[in-house]
Amino acid sequence: MNNFNPRKRNKEEVSYWLSYSDLMAALLIIFILILAYNILQFKVSQEELEAIQVQIKEIDQTNKVIDKLEKEFGEEIEINEDTGDIVVKSDILFDFDEYELKEKGKNFLEDFIPRYLDVMIGDKEIKDNLYRILVVGHTDAKGDYLYNLELSQLRALEVVNYIFSEEIKTSHKKEVEKYIEAIGRSETEVKKSDNGEILSDESRRVEFKFELRTLEKIKKALEGIPNP
Question: Which fold has domain 58-221?
Answer without folding.
Answer: 60s Ribosomal Protein L30; Chain: A; (3.30.1330)
